[in-house]
Amino acid sequence: MPGTEALLAAVATFGDKWADGMLASHVSESLACSEVDVLADVLWLLGWREQAITWLSEHGESSSEEDEDEHFEWTREIAERELAARNAD
After folding, report:
1. Quick one: DSSP state of residue 31?
2. Is residue 39 a contact partner of residue 5, using CB atoms and an 8 Å limit?
3. DSSP-derived secondary structure letter, 46
4. Which residues contact 8 (CB under 8 A, 6 or more apart)?
5. How far apart are CA 72 and CA 15, in angstroms?
6. Per-residue model confidence as pLDDT tens digits over 16-35
7. What's the pLDDT at 6?
8. How many domains are contained in the chain?
9. Considering the entire predicted model, what is its pTM?
10. Intra-chain end-to-end CA distance of the chain, in Å
11. H helix intervals, 19-64
């Protein structure tokens, strides 16, 4: 098991690579909705909120309207959790 410092460095590198909007535009249509949701969740929690929304938007453009609605529901739920956490501090 890697140490905390190595794990944090790997997570930061992961976020840097997957936060790329060009990558999202090329890859998102090949991923399942659940895969994009998980990736967006990780990016969101790492602080790359705009990039998380980019992945959802790019994927939504290649999905059905119903799928896009589910992604926007996800974004709203995450935003509400974030606000609740901030207000708790």
Report:
1. S
2. no
3. T
4. none
5. 21
6. 888 888 888 888 888 888 88
7. 92
8. 1
9. 0.64
10. 32
11. 21-27, 33-45, 49-62
